[in-house]
Amino acid sequence: MLRCVIGKRWDNLGSQFPPSVGTTLQRFIGFLIFWAIELPFCSLRPNRLRWLYTFKAWTLPPSVFGLLIYCLVQSRGQLADDDALTGSSTRPRGAALVWLVVGSINSAMGNWSTFIANMPDFSRYAKNPSAVMWTHIIFVPFPAALGGMIGIFGTSCIQRAWGVTLWNQWDLLDAILEHSWSGPARLGVFLLAFCAALFNFGTILGANLLPFASDATALLPAYFNLTRGMWFCCAVSLALMPWKLLASADGFLAFLQGYGIFMGPTAAIMVADYWVVRRGNIHIADAYSSAPGARYMYFHGFNLNAIVAYFCGMMIPFVGFVGTFGISVPRAATRCDEIGWYVSAVVAGVVYVTLCRLRPLENIDKSLSWEELAVQFAKSREVPHDETDSEQGTAETEKEGPEMSIRDDIEVSCVHVV
Protein backbone atom coordinates (compact mmCIF):
# COMPACT_ATOMS: atom_id res chain seq x y z
CA MET A 1 0.00 0.00 0.00
CA LEU A 2 2.78 2.42 0.87
CA ARG A 3 4.62 1.57 -2.33
CA CYS A 4 1.52 2.41 -4.35
CA VAL A 5 1.11 5.77 -2.61
CA ILE A 6 4.73 6.93 -2.35
CA GLY A 7 5.92 5.51 -5.65
CA LYS A 8 9.35 4.27 -6.61
CA ARG A 9 10.96 6.41 -3.92
CA TRP A 10 9.67 3.81 -1.49
CA ASP A 11 12.03 1.26 -3.04
CA ASN A 12 15.03 3.57 -2.75
CA LEU A 13 15.06 4.67 0.87
CA GLY A 14 18.49 5.92 1.86
CA SER A 15 19.38 3.74 4.84
CA GLN A 16 18.68 0.05 5.37
CA PHE A 17 18.93 -2.40 8.23
CA PRO A 18 21.88 -4.81 8.28
CA PRO A 19 21.05 -8.39 7.18
CA SER A 20 21.28 -9.59 10.79
CA VAL A 21 18.05 -7.73 11.64
CA GLY A 22 16.05 -10.09 9.46
CA THR A 23 13.86 -7.53 7.71
CA THR A 24 14.04 -4.47 5.49
CA LEU A 25 13.32 -0.89 6.47
CA GLN A 26 10.23 -0.84 4.27
CA ARG A 27 8.73 -3.94 5.86
CA PHE A 28 9.55 -2.72 9.36
CA ILE A 29 7.79 0.60 8.72
CA GLY A 30 4.76 -1.24 7.37
CA PHE A 31 4.72 -3.52 10.42
CA LEU A 32 4.86 -0.58 12.84
CA ILE A 33 2.04 1.25 11.07
CA PHE A 34 -0.14 -1.86 11.05
CA TRP A 35 0.69 -2.53 14.71
CA ALA A 36 -0.13 1.06 15.72
CA ILE A 37 -3.49 0.98 13.91
CA GLU A 38 -4.38 -2.20 15.79
CA LEU A 39 -3.83 -0.65 19.22
CA PRO A 40 -7.00 1.51 19.51
CA PHE A 41 -9.16 -1.50 18.67
CA CYS A 42 -7.80 -3.27 21.75
CA SER A 43 -9.88 -0.88 23.85
CA LEU A 44 -13.15 -1.99 22.25
CA ARG A 45 -15.23 -4.83 23.61
CA PRO A 46 -15.86 -7.64 21.09
CA ASN A 47 -19.56 -6.77 20.74
CA ARG A 48 -18.50 -3.34 19.44
CA LEU A 49 -16.43 -4.82 16.60
CA ARG A 50 -19.29 -6.26 14.60
CA TRP A 51 -19.16 -3.42 12.08
CA LEU A 52 -15.51 -4.24 11.35
CA TYR A 53 -16.20 -7.87 10.50
CA THR A 54 -19.28 -6.92 8.48
CA PHE A 55 -17.18 -4.49 6.45
CA LYS A 56 -14.49 -7.14 6.00
CA ALA A 57 -17.04 -9.70 4.83
CA TRP A 58 -18.29 -7.35 2.10
CA THR A 59 -14.88 -6.20 0.85
CA LEU A 60 -12.84 -9.41 0.80
CA PRO A 61 -14.81 -11.51 -1.77
CA PRO A 62 -14.78 -8.82 -4.51
CA SER A 63 -11.04 -8.32 -4.04
CA VAL A 64 -10.30 -12.05 -4.25
CA PHE A 65 -12.39 -12.60 -7.37
CA GLY A 66 -11.04 -9.39 -8.90
CA LEU A 67 -7.47 -10.64 -8.51
CA LEU A 68 -8.45 -13.99 -10.04
CA ILE A 69 -10.02 -12.24 -13.03
CA TYR A 70 -6.84 -10.22 -13.51
CA CYS A 71 -4.76 -13.41 -13.53
CA LEU A 72 -7.14 -15.06 -16.03
CA VAL A 73 -6.92 -12.04 -18.32
CA GLN A 74 -3.12 -12.10 -18.23
CA SER A 75 -3.02 -15.75 -19.32
CA ARG A 76 -6.05 -15.46 -21.63
CA GLY A 77 -7.80 -18.12 -19.60
CA GLN A 78 -5.03 -20.72 -19.98
CA LEU A 79 -3.46 -22.60 -17.08
CA ALA A 80 0.16 -23.62 -16.68
CA ASP A 81 1.35 -27.17 -17.11
CA ASP A 82 1.56 -29.24 -13.96
CA ASP A 83 5.31 -29.69 -14.41
CA ALA A 84 5.89 -25.94 -14.64
CA LEU A 85 3.65 -25.20 -11.68
CA THR A 86 5.04 -27.81 -9.32
CA GLY A 87 8.62 -27.78 -10.58
CA SER A 88 8.60 -31.57 -10.91
CA SER A 89 7.79 -33.98 -13.71
CA THR A 90 6.73 -36.78 -11.36
CA ARG A 91 3.18 -37.01 -10.13
CA PRO A 92 2.08 -38.93 -7.04
CA ARG A 93 -0.03 -41.97 -7.75
CA GLY A 94 -1.62 -44.73 -5.75
CA ALA A 95 -0.67 -44.82 -2.09
CA ALA A 96 1.57 -41.76 -2.47
CA LEU A 97 -1.40 -39.73 -3.74
CA VAL A 98 -3.61 -40.96 -0.91
CA TRP A 99 -1.06 -40.01 1.73
CA LEU A 100 -0.60 -36.62 0.08
CA VAL A 101 -4.33 -35.90 0.27
CA VAL A 102 -4.63 -37.18 3.83
CA GLY A 103 -1.56 -35.22 4.92
CA SER A 104 -2.91 -32.04 3.31
CA ILE A 105 -6.23 -32.39 5.13
CA ASN A 106 -4.36 -33.07 8.35
CA SER A 107 -2.29 -29.92 7.81
CA ALA A 108 -5.45 -27.89 7.23
CA MET A 109 -6.98 -29.27 10.42
CA GLY A 110 -3.82 -28.29 12.27
CA ASN A 111 -4.19 -24.73 11.02
CA TRP A 112 -7.84 -24.66 12.12
CA SER A 113 -7.19 -26.36 15.46
CA THR A 114 -6.44 -23.05 17.17
CA PHE A 115 -9.81 -21.67 16.05
CA ILE A 116 -11.55 -24.86 17.21
CA ALA A 117 -10.09 -24.54 20.70
CA ASN A 118 -10.59 -20.77 20.92
CA MET A 119 -14.05 -20.63 19.35
CA PRO A 120 -15.93 -20.08 22.66
CA ASP A 121 -13.89 -16.93 23.28
CA PHE A 122 -15.88 -15.07 20.64
CA SER A 123 -18.84 -17.34 19.79
CA ARG A 124 -20.19 -16.80 23.33
CA TYR A 125 -21.25 -13.30 22.27
CA ALA A 126 -23.84 -14.74 19.87
CA LYS A 127 -27.51 -14.30 20.70
CA ASN A 128 -28.13 -18.06 20.64
CA PRO A 129 -26.17 -21.26 19.87
CA SER A 130 -27.85 -21.82 16.50
CA ALA A 131 -26.45 -18.52 15.24
CA VAL A 132 -22.96 -19.87 15.81
CA MET A 133 -23.65 -23.36 14.47
CA TRP A 134 -25.11 -22.47 11.09
CA THR A 135 -22.61 -19.69 10.52
CA HIS A 136 -19.70 -22.08 10.91
CA ILE A 137 -21.30 -24.96 9.01
CA ILE A 138 -22.01 -22.79 5.96
CA PHE A 139 -19.36 -20.08 5.95
CA VAL A 140 -16.24 -21.90 7.17
CA PRO A 141 -15.61 -25.00 5.00
CA PHE A 142 -16.88 -23.74 1.64
CA PRO A 143 -15.16 -20.32 1.55
CA ALA A 144 -11.94 -21.90 2.83
CA ALA A 145 -11.97 -24.51 0.06
CA LEU A 146 -12.96 -21.91 -2.52
CA GLY A 147 -10.14 -19.61 -1.41
CA GLY A 148 -7.60 -22.39 -1.87
CA MET A 149 -8.91 -23.17 -5.36
CA ILE A 150 -8.78 -19.50 -6.35
CA GLY A 151 -5.18 -19.28 -5.16
CA ILE A 152 -4.18 -22.33 -7.22
CA PHE A 153 -5.90 -21.07 -10.37
CA GLY A 154 -4.43 -17.58 -9.97
CA THR A 155 -0.90 -18.90 -9.47
CA SER A 156 -1.27 -21.21 -12.46
CA CYS A 157 -2.45 -18.37 -14.70
CA ILE A 158 0.43 -16.09 -13.72
CA GLN A 159 2.92 -18.92 -14.25
CA ARG A 160 1.53 -19.40 -17.76
CA ALA A 161 1.57 -15.68 -18.54
CA TRP A 162 4.80 -14.50 -16.90
CA GLY A 163 6.77 -17.70 -16.33
CA VAL A 164 7.08 -17.25 -12.55
CA THR A 165 5.39 -19.24 -9.79
CA LEU A 166 4.07 -16.92 -7.08
CA TRP A 167 2.19 -18.62 -4.26
CA ASN A 168 2.43 -15.63 -1.90
CA GLN A 169 -0.13 -12.91 -2.49
CA TRP A 170 2.28 -10.15 -1.51
CA ASP A 171 4.82 -11.39 -4.07
CA LEU A 172 2.08 -11.38 -6.69
CA LEU A 173 1.12 -7.78 -5.91
CA ASP A 174 4.77 -6.72 -6.18
CA ALA A 175 5.02 -8.56 -9.50
CA ILE A 176 1.95 -6.73 -10.80
CA LEU A 177 3.56 -3.37 -10.04
CA GLU A 178 6.81 -4.44 -11.68
CA HIS A 179 4.92 -5.66 -14.73
CA SER A 180 2.84 -2.49 -15.08
CA TRP A 181 3.75 0.68 -13.18
CA SER A 182 0.68 2.66 -14.19
CA GLY A 183 -1.90 4.65 -12.28
CA PRO A 184 -4.71 2.09 -12.65
CA ALA A 185 -2.37 -0.75 -11.69
CA ARG A 186 -1.19 1.07 -8.58
CA LEU A 187 -4.78 1.87 -7.57
CA GLY A 188 -5.84 -1.73 -8.08
CA VAL A 189 -2.91 -3.09 -6.09
CA PHE A 190 -3.61 -0.59 -3.31
CA LEU A 191 -7.23 -1.74 -3.01
CA LEU A 192 -6.23 -5.41 -3.11
CA ALA A 193 -3.58 -4.87 -0.45
CA PHE A 194 -6.05 -2.92 1.69
CA CYS A 195 -8.62 -5.74 1.58
CA ALA A 196 -5.95 -8.34 2.39
CA ALA A 197 -4.65 -6.21 5.27
CA LEU A 198 -8.21 -5.79 6.56
CA PHE A 199 -8.65 -9.57 6.50
CA ASN A 200 -5.48 -10.07 8.55
CA PHE A 201 -6.51 -7.21 10.83
CA GLY A 202 -9.75 -8.95 11.76
CA THR A 203 -8.02 -12.31 12.12
CA ILE A 204 -5.48 -10.90 14.57
CA LEU A 205 -8.22 -9.32 16.68
CA GLY A 206 -10.53 -12.32 16.78
CA ALA A 207 -8.11 -15.25 16.66
CA ASN A 208 -5.08 -13.91 18.54
CA LEU A 209 -5.75 -10.92 20.78
CA LEU A 210 -9.20 -11.86 22.07
CA PRO A 211 -8.35 -15.51 22.99
CA PHE A 212 -5.19 -14.38 24.78
CA ALA A 213 -7.11 -11.70 26.67
CA SER A 214 -9.84 -14.18 27.64
CA ASP A 215 -7.28 -16.64 29.01
CA ALA A 216 -5.38 -13.90 30.85
CA THR A 217 -8.62 -12.64 32.40
CA ALA A 218 -9.50 -16.13 33.59
CA LEU A 219 -6.04 -16.80 35.04
CA LEU A 220 -5.39 -13.39 36.62
CA PRO A 221 -8.74 -11.60 36.99
CA ALA A 222 -7.33 -9.18 39.56
CA TYR A 223 -4.93 -7.76 36.99
CA PHE A 224 -6.50 -8.36 33.57
CA ASN A 225 -9.73 -7.74 31.78
CA LEU A 226 -10.29 -8.09 28.02
CA THR A 227 -8.95 -4.63 27.25
CA ARG A 228 -5.80 -4.97 29.34
CA GLY A 229 -5.19 -8.46 28.01
CA MET A 230 -5.31 -7.35 24.38
CA TRP A 231 -3.03 -4.38 25.04
CA PHE A 232 -0.57 -6.63 26.84
CA CYS A 233 -0.61 -9.12 23.96
CA CYS A 234 0.14 -6.33 21.47
CA ALA A 235 3.09 -5.17 23.55
CA VAL A 236 4.49 -8.70 23.80
CA SER A 237 4.06 -9.25 20.05
CA LEU A 238 6.27 -6.26 19.32
CA ALA A 239 8.89 -7.31 21.87
CA LEU A 240 9.13 -10.80 20.34
CA MET A 241 10.29 -9.30 17.00
CA PRO A 242 8.24 -11.61 14.74
CA TRP A 243 10.20 -10.57 11.64
CA LYS A 244 13.23 -12.20 13.23
CA LEU A 245 11.37 -15.47 13.67
CA LEU A 246 10.21 -15.53 10.07
CA ALA A 247 13.68 -14.77 8.76
CA SER A 248 15.78 -17.26 10.69
CA ALA A 249 13.79 -19.70 12.81
CA ASP A 250 13.35 -22.73 10.53
CA GLY A 251 12.64 -24.87 13.57
CA PHE A 252 9.93 -22.48 14.72
CA LEU A 253 8.25 -22.63 11.32
CA ALA A 254 8.43 -26.43 11.39
CA PHE A 255 6.75 -26.33 14.78
CA LEU A 256 3.93 -24.16 13.42
CA GLN A 257 3.34 -26.65 10.60
CA GLY A 258 2.93 -29.55 13.01
CA TYR A 259 1.54 -28.07 16.19
CA GLY A 260 -1.86 -29.54 15.39
CA ILE A 261 -0.81 -32.58 17.45
CA PHE A 262 -0.75 -30.27 20.48
CA MET A 263 -4.07 -28.56 19.77
CA GLY A 264 -5.99 -31.64 18.59
CA PRO A 265 -6.10 -33.26 22.05
CA THR A 266 -7.20 -29.97 23.59
CA ALA A 267 -10.20 -29.64 21.30
CA ALA A 268 -11.08 -33.33 21.60
CA ILE A 269 -11.05 -33.26 25.41
CA MET A 270 -13.21 -30.12 25.44
CA VAL A 271 -15.76 -31.76 23.12
CA ALA A 272 -15.76 -35.06 25.00
CA ASP A 273 -16.05 -33.33 28.36
CA TYR A 274 -19.06 -31.23 27.38
CA TRP A 275 -20.96 -33.60 25.07
CA VAL A 276 -20.23 -37.01 26.61
CA VAL A 277 -19.02 -36.69 30.19
CA ARG A 278 -21.10 -33.73 31.45
CA ARG A 279 -23.93 -33.97 28.93
CA GLY A 280 -23.94 -30.22 28.50
CA ASN A 281 -24.28 -29.31 32.18
CA ILE A 282 -21.85 -26.73 33.58
CA HIS A 283 -22.29 -24.63 36.70
CA ILE A 284 -21.10 -21.37 35.15
CA ALA A 285 -20.71 -19.37 38.36
CA ASP A 286 -18.59 -22.12 39.94
CA ALA A 287 -16.25 -22.08 36.96
CA TYR A 288 -15.06 -18.63 38.09
CA SER A 289 -14.21 -19.74 41.64
CA SER A 290 -10.67 -20.76 42.57
CA ALA A 291 -11.36 -21.27 46.26
CA PRO A 292 -10.06 -24.53 47.77
CA GLY A 293 -12.69 -27.21 47.39
CA ALA A 294 -14.55 -25.35 44.63
CA ARG A 295 -16.50 -27.46 42.17
CA TYR A 296 -13.98 -27.15 39.33
CA MET A 297 -10.70 -26.95 41.26
CA TYR A 298 -10.05 -30.72 40.95
CA PHE A 299 -6.56 -31.61 42.26
CA HIS A 300 -4.97 -28.25 43.11
CA GLY A 301 -6.58 -26.77 40.02
CA PHE A 302 -5.68 -29.60 37.61
CA ASN A 303 -8.03 -32.14 36.05
CA LEU A 304 -5.79 -35.22 36.16
CA ASN A 305 -8.01 -37.18 33.78
CA ALA A 306 -7.63 -34.46 31.16
CA ILE A 307 -3.86 -34.22 31.65
CA VAL A 308 -3.35 -37.97 31.21
CA ALA A 309 -5.62 -38.04 28.15
CA TYR A 310 -3.80 -35.08 26.62
CA PHE A 311 -0.38 -36.69 26.86
CA CYS A 312 -1.71 -40.04 25.62
CA GLY A 313 -3.03 -38.37 22.48
CA MET A 314 -0.06 -36.09 21.91
CA MET A 315 2.75 -38.59 22.43
CA ILE A 316 1.68 -41.06 19.72
CA PRO A 317 2.44 -38.77 16.72
CA PHE A 318 5.13 -36.85 18.62
CA VAL A 319 8.01 -39.03 17.35
CA GLY A 320 7.07 -38.27 13.76
CA PHE A 321 6.76 -34.58 14.63
CA VAL A 322 10.35 -34.63 15.91
CA GLY A 323 11.38 -35.96 12.51
CA THR A 324 10.30 -32.69 10.86
CA PHE A 325 13.32 -31.04 12.51
CA GLY A 326 15.73 -33.23 10.55
CA ILE A 327 16.09 -36.02 13.13
CA SER A 328 16.02 -39.56 11.74
CA VAL A 329 12.84 -41.40 12.78
CA PRO A 330 11.15 -44.60 11.51
CA ARG A 331 8.96 -44.35 8.44
CA ALA A 332 5.94 -45.46 10.47
CA ALA A 333 6.44 -42.50 12.81
CA THR A 334 6.49 -40.13 9.83
CA ARG A 335 3.25 -41.62 8.54
CA CYS A 336 1.71 -41.21 11.98
CA ASP A 337 2.71 -37.55 12.00
CA GLU A 338 1.03 -37.06 8.62
CA ILE A 339 -2.26 -37.95 10.29
CA GLY A 340 -1.18 -36.52 13.63
CA TRP A 341 -4.20 -34.30 14.22
CA TYR A 342 -6.65 -37.16 13.75
CA VAL A 343 -4.63 -39.59 15.87
CA SER A 344 -4.00 -37.18 18.73
CA ALA A 345 -7.60 -35.96 18.82
CA VAL A 346 -9.25 -39.39 18.67
CA VAL A 347 -6.90 -40.99 21.20
CA ALA A 348 -7.20 -38.09 23.65
CA GLY A 349 -11.00 -38.05 23.42
CA VAL A 350 -11.37 -41.81 23.88
CA VAL A 351 -8.88 -41.95 26.75
CA TYR A 352 -10.57 -39.04 28.53
CA VAL A 353 -14.03 -40.61 28.35
CA THR A 354 -12.60 -43.96 29.49
CA LEU A 355 -10.80 -42.40 32.44
CA CYS A 356 -13.96 -40.55 33.47
CA ARG A 357 -15.78 -43.89 33.48
CA LEU A 358 -13.07 -45.65 35.50
CA ARG A 359 -12.32 -42.64 37.73
CA PRO A 360 -15.49 -40.50 37.76
CA LEU A 361 -15.16 -36.79 38.38
CA GLU A 362 -16.76 -35.70 41.64
CA ASN A 363 -18.34 -32.55 40.18
CA ILE A 364 -20.67 -34.35 37.76
CA ASP A 365 -24.33 -34.93 38.63
CA LYS A 366 -25.39 -37.97 36.59
CA SER A 367 -29.05 -37.36 37.41
CA LEU A 368 -29.14 -34.28 35.16
CA SER A 369 -30.47 -34.69 31.64
CA TRP A 370 -28.93 -33.08 28.56
CA GLU A 371 -28.31 -29.35 29.22
CA GLU A 372 -30.79 -29.37 32.10
CA LEU A 373 -28.92 -26.59 33.89
CA ALA A 374 -29.19 -24.39 30.81
CA VAL A 375 -32.94 -25.00 30.64
CA GLN A 376 -33.31 -24.10 34.31
CA PHE A 377 -31.31 -20.93 33.78
CA ALA A 378 -33.46 -19.94 30.79
CA LYS A 379 -36.65 -20.38 32.80
CA SER A 380 -35.29 -18.30 35.67
CA ARG A 381 -34.43 -15.32 33.50
CA GLU A 382 -37.02 -12.56 33.41
CA VAL A 383 -35.27 -9.98 31.19
CA PRO A 384 -33.85 -11.15 27.83
CA HIS A 385 -30.18 -10.49 27.22
CA ASP A 386 -30.45 -8.14 24.23
CA GLU A 387 -28.04 -5.70 22.73
CA THR A 388 -29.10 -2.98 25.18
CA ASP A 389 -28.14 -5.12 28.14
CA SER A 390 -24.87 -5.97 26.44
CA GLU A 391 -24.02 -2.31 25.95
CA GLN A 392 -24.95 -1.54 29.56
CA GLY A 393 -22.74 -4.39 30.77
CA THR A 394 -19.92 -3.04 28.66
CA ALA A 395 -20.21 0.42 30.20
CA GLU A 396 -20.25 -1.02 33.72
CA THR A 397 -17.20 -3.14 32.92
CA GLU A 398 -15.27 -0.11 31.76
CA LYS A 399 -16.18 1.75 34.95
CA GLU A 400 -15.69 -0.96 37.57
CA GLY A 401 -12.69 -2.85 36.17
CA PRO A 402 -11.75 -6.53 36.29
CA GLU A 403 -14.29 -7.64 38.91
CA MET A 404 -17.18 -6.37 36.85
CA SER A 405 -15.60 -7.98 33.79
CA ILE A 406 -15.87 -11.37 35.48
CA ARG A 407 -19.56 -10.89 36.31
CA ASP A 408 -20.22 -9.77 32.76
CA ASP A 409 -18.39 -12.82 31.40
CA ILE A 410 -20.48 -15.10 33.63
CA GLU A 411 -23.70 -13.62 32.26
CA VAL A 412 -22.55 -13.86 28.64
CA SER A 413 -21.33 -17.44 29.15
CA CYS A 414 -24.69 -18.43 30.63
CA VAL A 415 -26.49 -17.01 27.61
CA HIS A 416 -24.20 -18.97 25.29
CA VAL A 417 -24.87 -22.23 27.15
CA VAL A 418 -28.60 -21.62 26.85
How many beta strands in the DSSP annotation?
0
Averaging pLDDT over every residue, what do you get? 83
Name the overall outline.
globular
SSE string = HHHHHHHHHHHHHHHHHHHH
Poorly predicted runs = 387-418
Structural class: mainly alpha
Give the strand content. Answer: under 5%
Share of residues in helices? over 70%
Q: Rg, please?
A: 25 Å
Structure commentary:
- The chain is mainly alpha-helical and 418 residues long.
- The chain folds into two domains: 213 residues, no CATH class; 132 residues, no CATH class.
- The chain is built from 20 helices and no strands.
- Helix 7 runs parallel beside helix 8.
- The longest helix is centred in the middle third of the chain and has 37 residues.
- The radius of gyration is 25 Å and the shape is globular.
Gist of the model:
The protein has 418 residues and is mostly helical. It is 71% helix and 0% strand. It contains 20 helices and no strands.
For the structure shown, list the relevant keywords.
418 residues, mainly alpha, 2 domains, globular, 20 helices, single chain, disordered C terminus
Helices and strands, with pairings:
Blueprint: H1 2-6, H2 25-41, H3 50-75, H4 82-86, H5 95-118, H6 120-123, H7 129-139, H8 141-162, H9 169-179, H10 183-219, H11 226-239, H12 242-248, H13 250-258, H14 260-277, H15 304-323, H16 331-338, H17 340-358, H18 372-380, H19 387-400, H20 402-417
Helix pairs in contact: 3-8, 3-10, 5-14, 7-8, 9-10, 10-11, 14-15, 14-17, 15-16, 15-17, 19-20
Family: Belongs to the purine-cytosine permease (2.A.39) family.
Transmembrane segments: 57-76, 96-119, 131-153, 187-210, 222-243, 255-277, 298-327, 339-358
Subcellular location: Membrane
